[in-house]
Design goal:
By secondary structure, the protein is mainly alpha-helical. It has a domain at about 5-70: Arc Repressor Mutant, subunit A (Orthogonal Bundle). It is built from 4 helices and 2 strands; from the N terminus they run αααββα. Strands 1-2 form a two-stranded antiparallel ribbon. A hairpin with a 5-residue loop joins strand 1 and strand 2 (about 60-65). Helix 2 packs across helix 3. The protein is globular, with a radius of gyration of 18 Å. The termini are far apart.
Length: about 120
């Protein structure tokens, strides 16, 4: 992925996390820091070719599966204290695919107590 495309993807991911949708091409100019709607279209097409975006039957851009990949550091850290993690170089993965077989049967349960401390 080109460095700029990585930046554009990050901006789209942040926008989507906050608004749960993508705005119009005109608004995407501001979100992506581009001057023209034609430039936005080129970015969306490139991200689509890479599997991060897809179009619905109504030609609306939506996140594709890879849009939700998370970066993974290949540098292990010790449990406990916060630790700086150097640049990420490992391949990203989708945490849902790693942890969840049946999303409809999966719930998150809050944990009480201090069993993970010390």
């Amino acid at each position: 992925m080109a460095i700029k495309d990585s930046e554009y993807l990050s901006r789209l991911q942040n926008y989507y996390a906050k608004h749960h949708s993508f705005p119009s091409y005109a608004r995407l100019c501001n979100v992506l820091g581009l001057a023209a709607k034609s430039a936005v279209k080129k970015v969306l097409l490139r991200l689509g070719e890479q599997g991060y975006l897809q179009r619905t039957i109504d030609e609306v851009w939506i996140p594709a599966e890879r849009f939700f990949e998370r970066k993974v550091s290949d540098a292990p850290v010790a449990a406990g204290l916060p630790t700086f993690v150097p640049d990420v170089t490992a391949d990203p993965f989708m945490i849902d695919q790693f942890l969840i077989d049946k999303p409809s049967k999966t719930i998150l349960v809050p944990v009480q107590g201090d069993s993970m401390i010390n």
